[in-house]
């Protein structure tokens, strides 16, 4: 069988000036946004934490559909079963709780991982979800007036909505055993626990000391607005700073130092033998998988200085905001909502500061600011906006002259330090460099 000869192709028109215009798209078909190759690396969001706790690999298996089925079954049972919710009862509160639980479940399953993997990344996703819910509640309150907000708080607790008397701690400042004993209350324990938590968050002695002194100075500056900021001098500097704050900071830093040098063990539960060994392994699941010591390097560069000053300002705002919110909304300091807010900010700040530290010191891995620090910053700033709006007509006393002078002096020092530490040395290096260039040009000219 003979093969037919190939057909001669006329190439005379290949270089014709009347060549057809190329058709946009792929093989003549326009490319749409959903035709992109999702396997390309630029289409993927790299999570902050790529590691998993391999010692409990079972808990990292995806169970999203199973969780969805269980969640919907629970919602259906609670919503439709008569012995749980009888018809005719007010179900608005239960509906709100169910909505919150559904959102937290979604955040636990679908949000990105943060920097922590113990006890499980899902726990820190839930923390992020609670933070987002609180931020949305603040945004809602931002558009309400103060009286409406006070009325809404009675829906959470009918005992709220009643004006509270202003309490001052500077009525009797005589230095004696009786006055000191009267000043020792549950808030001293709260101070110590609070600074223990701040030490665990910041992991730096000097930062904690600066923040402790700055907070006491802030109390001095704002006591004309909030009466409970008025304290005796020994209450400020001895009882608070030198005793409660120092003890909490010392214990917190000791725990940080222990975690820094602790020998970590990542064996799974099955590799442990004996009930005591297995119980110890279960408890270790609630300890850090590893630990990073923070070295903020305030004097190392101008950028580090700016970040540390901003972090200090945000921490001060986070400390002062609950005092203003409870005063405006008429809540006692030991009200469960106030305590929950403090505990919630502590949990949110743990991964947030860790993300910020890596964002500053390891920009190659942390190419953008983490979700925890971004959302917590938005939350604190939204609290400030709410306080600023509701404070109009409430805090009418102007700042005393001494406070104005103190704030002005502090602002000057904050500007003067980087000028002396970074600006003048940089200017000297620049002048020496220019002189060296000028001498080189002069030598070439000769």
Features:
single chain; 446 residues; mainly alpha; 2 domains; 13 helices; disordered N terminus
Reconstruct the topology from this structure.
Blueprint: H1 64-80, H2 92-110, H3 121-142, H4 146-156, H5 177-183, H6 186-202, H7 205-222, H8 233-261, H9 275-284, H10 302-328, H11 336-361, H12 371-390, H13 401-445
Helix content: 55-70%
Helix-strand sequence: HHHHHHHHHHHHH
Give the N-to-C terminal Cα separation.
90 Å
Number of self-contained structural domains? 2
Low-confidence stretches: 1-17, 33-50, 263-269
Kindly name the structural category: mainly alpha
Radius of gyration: 31 Å
Principal-axis shape equals globular
Strand content: under 5%
DSSP helical segment count: 13
The strand count comes to 0
| Biggest pleated-sheet summary | none
What is the residue-averaged pLDDT?
80
Give a description of the structure.
With 446 residues, the chain is mostly helical. The protein folds into 2 domains: 44-110; 124-272 and 282-397, no CATH class. The chain is built from 13 helices and no strands. Mean pLDDT is 80; it is low at 1-17, 33-50 and 263-269.
Briefly summarize what is shown.
It is found in: Endoplasmic reticulum membrane. By secondary structure, this protein is mainly α.
């Amino acid at each position: 069988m003979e093969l037919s000869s190939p057909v001669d192709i006329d190439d005379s028109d290949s270089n014709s000036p009347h060549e057809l215009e190329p058709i946009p798209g792929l093989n003549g078909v326009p490319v749409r946004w959903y035709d992109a190759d999702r396997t390309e690396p630029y289409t993927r969001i790299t999570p902050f934490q790529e590691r998993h706790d391999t010692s409990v690999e079972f808990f990292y298996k995806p169970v999203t559909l199973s969780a969805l089925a269980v969640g919907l079954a629970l919602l259906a049972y609670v919503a439709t079963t008569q012995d749980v919710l009888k018809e005719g009862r007010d179900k608005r509160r239960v509906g709100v709780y169910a909505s919150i639980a559904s959102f937290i479940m979604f955040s636990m399953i679908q949000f990105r991982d943060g920097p922590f993997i113990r006890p499980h990344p899902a726990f820190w996703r839930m923390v992020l979800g609670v933070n987002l819910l609180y931020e949305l509640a603040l945004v809602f309150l931002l558009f309400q007036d103060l009286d409406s907000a006070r009325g809404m708080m009675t829906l959470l607790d009918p005992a709220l909505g009643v004006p509270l008397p202003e309490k001052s701690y500077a009525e009797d400042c005589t230095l004696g055993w009786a006055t000191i004993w009267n000043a020792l209350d549950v808030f001293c324990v709260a101070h110590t626990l609070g600074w223990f938590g701040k030490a665990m968050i910041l992991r730096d002695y000097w930062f904690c000391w600066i923040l402790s002194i700055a907070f006491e100075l802030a109390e001095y500056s704002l006591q004309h607005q909030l009466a409970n900021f008025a304290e005796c001098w020994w209450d400020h500097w001895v009882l608070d700073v030198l005793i409660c704050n120092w003890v909490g900071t010392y214990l917190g830093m000791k725990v940080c130092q222990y975690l820094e040098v602790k020998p970590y063990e990542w064996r799974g539960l099955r590799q442990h033998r004996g009930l005591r060994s297995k119980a110890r392994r279960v408890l270790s699941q609630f300890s850090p998988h590893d630990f990073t010591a923070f070295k903020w390097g305030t004097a190392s560069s101008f950028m580090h200085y700016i970040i540390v000053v901003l972090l200090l300002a945000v921490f001060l705002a986070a400390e002062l905001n609950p005092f203003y919110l409870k005063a405006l909304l008429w809540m006692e300091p030991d009200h469960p909502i106030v305590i929950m807010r403090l505990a919630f900010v502590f949990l949110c700040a743990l991964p947030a500061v860790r993300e910020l530290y890596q964002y500053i010191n390891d920009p190659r891995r942390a190419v953008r600011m983490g979700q925890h620090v971004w959302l917590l910053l938005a939350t604190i700033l939204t609290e400030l906006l709410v306080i600023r709006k509701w404070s109009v007509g409430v805090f009418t006393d102007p700042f005393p002259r001494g406070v104005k002078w103190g704030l002005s002096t502090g602002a000057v020092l904050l500007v003067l330090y980087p000028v002396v530490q970074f600006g003048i040395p940089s200017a000297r290096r620049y002048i020496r460099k220019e002189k060296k260039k000028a001498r080189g040009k002069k030598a070439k000219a000769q």
